[in-house]
Amino acid sequence: MNDDSSPEATLRKRLYWHSRRGMWELDLLLIPFLEQCYGDLDEADQAAFRSLIEEEDQDLFAWLMRREWPEDPARRRIVKMIVEHAETTDNDRYRNL
User: Fold this and answer.
1) Taking burial as the number of CB atoms within 10 A of a residue's CB, which of 7, 52, 53, 73 is the most buried?
2) What per-residue confidence (pLDDT) applies to 96?
3) What is the CATH number of the domain that holds 77?
4) 94 occurs within a structural domain
């Protein structure tokens, strides 16, 4: 994260802050996805991510651990994208979050 004060950088900083959760497991899924994938998402998927991180930790945990799936199709899609990213990416640098 740099000191850029553009609207995009401000939004990214806000998203990063909201992606830091009270649960380490969620941090390990949300932050790498934000940093590595968010910028390449289309507008609808970016909106779904922004909406997703407003959810309660217990709901996020259930969805991201694949214990349940969100009912909303857009939310289900972004959750699956996050899970797939975590399963296919080496995120060792995030172990010390």
Assistant:
1) 52
2) 55
3) 1.10.150.250
4) no
- Give 93-96's long-range contacts (Cβ < 8 A, gap of 24+): 94/27, 94/28, 94/31, 94/32, 95/28
CB atoms within 10 A of CB 19: 20
What is the reported pLDDT for 6?
84
**Domain presence at residue 1:** no
Tokens of 54: 């407003």
Segment-wise mean pLDDT, segments of 10 residues, the chain, 97 residues: 70 76 85 94 96 94 96 97 91 58
Reference 79, options 40, 54, 49, 42; nearest CA is 49
> Is 11 part of a structural domain of the chain?
no
**Total count of domains within the chain:** 1
Nearest to 15 by CA among 72, 90, 1: 1
Range of the domain at 82: 16-89
Determine contact, residues 35/97, Cβ cutoff 8 Å.
no
Output the pLDDT for position 94: 55
